[in-house]
Input
Amino acid sequence: MTSTQGRAVTVAAPAGPMRPARYVVAAHGAETGDTVTLALRPAGSPIEPPRPGQFTMLYAFGVGEVPISVSGFGRGHELVQTIRAIGAVTRALCAAAPGDMIGVRGPFGTQWRLDVAEGRDLLIVAGGIGLAPLRPMLLTVLEQRARYRRVVLLVGARSPRDLLFTRELETWRRRGVEVRVTVDRADAGWKGDVGLVTRFIDGAVVHPAATTAFVCGPEIMMRVCAHALVHLGVAAEDIQVSLERNMRCGAALCGHCQLGPLLLCRDGPVVSYAEAAPLAAKKEL
Ligand SMILES: Cc1cc2nc3c(=O)[nH]c(=O)nc-3n(C[C@H](O)[C@H](O)[C@H](O)COP(=O)(O)OP(=O)(O)OC[C@H]3O[C@@H](n4cnc5c(N)ncnc54)[C@H](O)[C@@H]3O)c2cc1C
Ligand code: FES
Output
């Protein structure tokens, strides 16, 4: 509320994509020492249901707002999002307890394209927190398992303690996914593979021309994966990557997320490597 010449004037809250919806933390689960999964329940009108690959802007009141991908499907209008604490806002979100209020805008961006992968082999490659945006896509694949041929999931993490969704990896295996997990640095109890996830690309592709790949992780890892896949004969159009840039509005208004001709909050984060590769000369990927 403000006042002009003694008259009270009500200033309307911004509408549309810039107005956060209020959500309450319904559940808080620790994934690793620095990563939590939150289930968020609408405290008023919910946002549209996000699709796998899309993200929301999560607002920790009084601290700030950051883009976070959806990492699962909640009950009803609940949102499921997995956050790694690396700075002020993500630390505040990770510290949110059941009952705390969070602002949510979105959903924004493009989704993983499963429609172009029907009848084909799927190769899903996740590095670190990159498994979070891939998880709802993988859960969708499992619901429609008969639509796809071979499904391979390669997961890489810095150490065994950094692995996400460990309880689910075995379930996914039992449901017909070939899961291979590797860590950069083993610890005393680790009996699995050691080495960068990109090392395992060669063995994971049997029919390059009939393979669709979904890759999410640090940009260097996505670039090395995409190079290896193209080298094996997978078409750049059949490789989907998720690109991250600083975001402010999330709604194609501010230009913060520009990469070449793309506004990644609108034209990404999921793009094909055919689109992403020519931008390599501009910045990082
Ligand atoms: C489309 C999109 C989806 C995302 N999805 C997720 C998700 O599902 N889960 C999740 O945990 N994070 C996700 N992120 C990253 C997340 O938005 C950042 O970690 C967050 O903005 C950092 O904000 P902060 O205030 O906590 O830290 P800041 O203080 O902003 O940053 C702390 C440090 O981390 C570095 N940093 C900031 N952002 C990134 C980044 N994106 N990648 C690598 N380093 C960074 C900064 O340079 C700085 O050194 C996503 C980002 C985008 C663009
Ligand atoms: S974040 Fe503002 S234009 Fe994309």
